[in-house]
């Protein structure tokens, strides 16, 4: 090597440190994933709703409310059908059922689906972490690490915004419907 000995030692220490960091990230990946996918959304929901529940439990409450709404509409339909009803009545009942389903379960279903996508995205972020940390070893692959880091930070912040919006929407549905 034509480098001075100090540069060679510094480069070897840098590579050793990055390798150690990648191995440590591998062992801490489950804790980091749990922090990003469970603890952070719970914290956001605690700020929004004041309860310790996670977004999934609020989504479940909205789906239970939707089931209760359907039971109420079906009970009303059964009581009203004894008195008779034409096609216009059945059409109004069908429309009421559809609108209550969309209004009550819409935010919960959409929020749940998007939360699942974010959990997969954060799982990929944490899972590929050691590989992208090792990209810091070579100068030509350093930009891969920065893009990975931008992706992870962006996904984390958008998950926080999603948890906030799910909290607002589910709380609103519970106040109006419950």
Automatic annotation (TrEMBL):
Subcellular location: Membrane
Membrane topology type: Multi-pass membrane protein
Keyword DNA damage included in the entry's annotation: no
Alphabetical list of Pfam families matching this protein: TrbL (PF04610)
UniProt xrefs under InterPro entries: Conjugal_tfr_TrbL/VirB6
Entry GO CC: membrane
Residue spans crossing the bilayer: 12-30, 108-136, 148-169
Chief site of localization: membrane
Hydrolase among keywords: no
Keywords of this entry: Membrane, Transmembrane, Transmembrane helix
GO BP annotation list: protein secretion by the type IV secretion system
Protein name from the UniProt record: Type VI secretion protein
